[in-house]
Design goal:
With 265 residues, this protein is mainly alpha-helical. It is built from twelve helices and no strands. It starts with 23 loop residues before the first helix and ends in a 22-residue tail after the last helix.
């Protein structure tokens, strides 16, 4: 059965909002909202992306709105079927995505429409991570099936765990490492051991270990051709980093540092 679409009752003319009796601040706020919403209203019939944009704009500015602005906009908000429940779901979804520390999962969720995003927030960590690992778009119906525990292809990645079973810390850890290995964002993480070092090591310790590796290469009499490609990529990456404005005039002179002196990238 296909999902029944909302029947939108866009019967409140956006250009006839009554602002004459509002104070200057309220009038400016209503006009700003009107100008933002006007080009999106017709698109709402095609999907909920534009509806979500209007709702998020309303939420982002709500704290600054006067009572007059809220009262004036209310009929338009209701005519667009932007209910309090819908606004609440958007807030919950945004909070979930903002707090998600795994960039692969966050990117995966952001590629879906708001209605699907909300359903994805209801999944347990194993199912959500496994679904993101497949790097395929999830339909509204598939998201519903996942939430209800129905079997679809993405659920096969959960290693046979039933809905009643809670994933162990190690299972969650293994999934997190697998996400890094399979993510397009983490270009150089090629196996779980790479991911483990990247996730567990402090940045300062990783940098010290990297410098020591270069120092070892400097003192190595023979050339290891297995590192040629990596060294070339490292050289390019360092040049790109040092070219950034944030790093200009802030890099100490390391020309006499015994760990890097004498090695020409």
């Amino acid at each position: 059965m296909q999902r029944k679409k909302e029947s939108l009752n866009i019967s409140f003319p956006i250009d006839t909002l009554k602002i004459a009796e509002l104070d200057e601040r309220s009038s400016a706020q209503v006009m700003a909202f009107r100008d933002f919403a006007r080009p999106l209203i017709d698109e709402i019939r095609k999907g909920d992306q534009s509806k979500a944009k209007i709702a998020n704009y309303y939420l982002a500015n709500y704290a600054e709105y006067t009572e007059g602005t809220i009262d004036t906009l209310q009929p338009l908000i209701e005519s667009l079927n932007i209910s309090k429940s819908y606004l609440c779901k958007l807030q919950q979804t945004k909070k979930f995505i903002d707090q998600e520390t795994n960039k692969s999962i966050r990117s995966f969720m952001e590629q879906h429409p708001p209605t699907v995003q909300y359903l994805l927030t209801k999944l347990d960590p194993i199912t959500l991570g496994s679904t993101a690992l497949l790097e395929r778009a999830v339909t509204f119906r598939q998201a519903q099936c996942l939430v209800k525990g129905e079997a679809i292809s993405a659920r096969k990645q959960t290693a046979g765990l039933s809905k009643s079973q809670s994933p162990s810390k190690q299972e969650l850890r293994n999934l997190e490492l697998a996400l890094l290995v399979n993510s397009k964002y983490y270009t150089y993480i090629q196996e779980p051991k790479d991911a483990e070092v990247y996730k567990t090591g402090r940045r300062k310790n990783l940098m010290n270990a990297f410098r020591q590796m270069l120092h070892d290469l400097i003192n190595n009499k023979y050339r290891n051709t297995a590192y040629d490609e990596a060294l070339t990529a490292i050289q390019k990456a360092i040049e790109e980093v040092l070219a950034k404005e944030a790093y200009k005039h802030k890099i100490p002179d390391t020309s006499r540092d015994p760990q890097v002196m004498g090695y020409d990238f």
